[in-house]
Amino acid sequence: MGNVPCPIYLPFPIMHIDGRSAQQLTKLGFWAGHRNSRIRVILAREWENDTELDISSNRISRAIGPLVYQKKYYETKFCICPGGSQVNSARIADSIHYGCVPVILSDYYDLPFNDILDWSKFSVILKESDVYRLKYILKEISDEEFVALHNNLVKVQKHFQWNTPPNKYDAFHMVMYELWLRRHVIKY
């Protein structure tokens, strides 16, 4: 048999989020990605030259330095998660992992564990039409509200982490519970 290439999946780099205050976060919002949907085109056009929102219509290349993409998540209060051409974007998971409050900017998004977790407690959910007022909506969120969102985000991080073997209340258990909740809907 010939050699078969095997993809290598590396775990998220660990960056500690404990002890960060709202004052230590240097950017109001962050998004980098391709303009592969209407909402992303508008987001980039409206905000890519703004000084408080770090909006880039190109993905950040790993060639520009180690962990640059991750550091941007880590240094930002709100991470913009616009709908794209596919529903498999890792931005929401990245935001949660790095402790950056996700801003869900989509009219049609079925969020993970939506039947279990109250997303309004640890994220900001906006309609696509809010893209034009994005900066002003985020600036209206008080430090107290942000701290509550961020603290709740830290609490739910464990529910989005996969472990081997599974840990209590991690992503594996959340998926199993979600399936159990839907057991009456599934036809055998």
UniProtKB/TrEMBL annotation:
<keyword id="KW-0812">Transmembrane</keyword>
<keyword id="KW-0735">Signal-anchor</keyword>
<dbReference type="InterPro" id="IPR004263">
    <property type="entry name" value="Exostosin"/>
</dbReference>
<keyword id="KW-0333">Golgi apparatus</keyword>
<dbReference type="Pfam" id="PF03016">
    <property type="entry name" value="Exostosin_GT47"/>
</dbReference>
<dbReference type="GO" id="GO:0016757">
    <property type="term" value="F:glycosyltransferase activity"/>
</dbReference>
<dbReference type="InterPro" id="IPR040911">
    <property type="entry name" value="Exostosin_GT47"/>
</dbReference>
<keyword id="KW-0328">Glycosyltransferase</keyword>
<keyword id="KW-0808">Transferase</keyword>
<comment type="similarity">
    <text>Belongs to the glycosyltransferase 47 family.</text>
</comment>
<dbReference type="GO" id="GO:0000139">
    <property type="term" value="C:Golgi membrane"/>
</dbReference>
<feature type="domain" description="Exostosin GT47">
    <location>
        <begin position="28"/>
        <end position="140"/>
    </location>
</feature>
<protein>
    <recommendedName>
        <fullName>Exostosin GT47 domain-containing protein</fullName>
    </recommendedName>
</protein>
